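Wed. Picked up where I left off yesterday with NADP-dependent succinic semialdehyde dehydrogenase. The coffee machine is broken again, so keeping this brief.
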Amino acid sequence: MAIATVNPATGETLKTFDALNAGEIEDHLVRADQAFQEHRTTSFGYRKERMLAAADLLDADQDGIARTMTTEMGKPLAQARAEAAKCAKTMRWYAHHAEELLADEHPDPADVSDSGAIRAVVRYRPLGPVLAVMPWNFPLWQVVRFAAPALMAGNTGLLKHASNVPQTALYLEELFRRAGFPEGCFQTLLIGSGAVEDILRDPRVVAATLTGSEPAGRAVASTAGDEVKKTVLELGGSDPFIVLPSADLDKAVRVGVTARVQNNGQSCIAAKRFLVHQDVHDAFAERFTARMAALTVGDPMDEHTDIGPLSSEQGRSDLEELVDDAVHRGATALCGGRRPPEHGAGWFYEPTVLSGITDGMRIHREEAFGPVATLYRVADLDEAVRLANDTPFGLGSNAWTRDPDEQQRLARDVQAGGVFFNGMTASHPGIPFGGVKRSGYGRELSGHGIREFCNMTTLWYGPED
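Structure written out below (tokens, as returned):
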């Protein structure tokens, strides 16, 4: 895939970039390793000052970088601004909390005395240069939620971003440099996916994190496993949105629409499968479909647009195939199900609601990456749980019930990295984020995220002679 900015609203190629050659990649690896030797010894106060400077710069740049993101991958401009603001917030969160999150731990001397120690200490030390392979759908946020904790922990970062967001990728390197981080602390590698394996096998690269597709995750995990290197993977999702009779139905409908179409429906943690109890199914379906059909599809730079184009022509084709397969096998499109005829240029797709989904349809098992919701009628809580788990993925989940017993059952039995009750699934710097099953492993954000790329070192002190 060419490294290029292609406007998905028009299909126009705006700017192309040459991939780094072998010598240039080597230069980046040298700088990352040299920068780590310096950066790992700096104080939390030093890193905090620079991370806060990066947040301030990002706030000042918000409109410009938002327009770059919208141009490169098509998200509505207001959502792009919100993404930039969230990144600045997360930088500040880690700037203020990293030192306490990575503070030395001191086991009770009485609990370790039988080891012969007079005391023991657990210390979190940085690992080294970490390779981040990141996707296009949240081109700023996906990177910052890795970079902020990694840099605050004392690591250095090498970013292999998606090939369709090169200008956003280059902006991130420039941002951290402008904030005062030493040369080489955070670098963007303009490379194709074929160059990833050799970089990950380089002994100077100590670990990797990837957010993206399941095949990409398998490839990185396989290479890292062969090299015995740590990885964190956040892959696909097919999140359930469970609605039970005690739910606030109007709120569930309103939030459900946003949860499905945020980022033009291109989010791993977007609600995708709506599992609605038979007692409220018809009322939910009617209101939900009406709201989906009323959304405005159009120019993502227009402040009144709800849904912009999909990021690529291939992405739209993949989504169409899932919808067409479902309809061919008996599903009903309550709204949408086609390319909007008034948008001939660009990779637009109508907000769509499909009902009558069966397990023989591809969309029942595969992730629909676009503004397409699948609607299921469930008889009871048991069926809701069964269908929620009837997927190879387990990233997020959403449940609407005010019954404490039902909440406890769902918290216990839904196979996902998170269960959000009566509110939209979201990521936040203070809450761990990640999945199970084929949605990946490891956690980002919170204290768990910053410790993923640390050496948890045991310091053992014996009695002095």
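Quick read: The CA atoms of residues 72 and 165 lie 6 Å apart.
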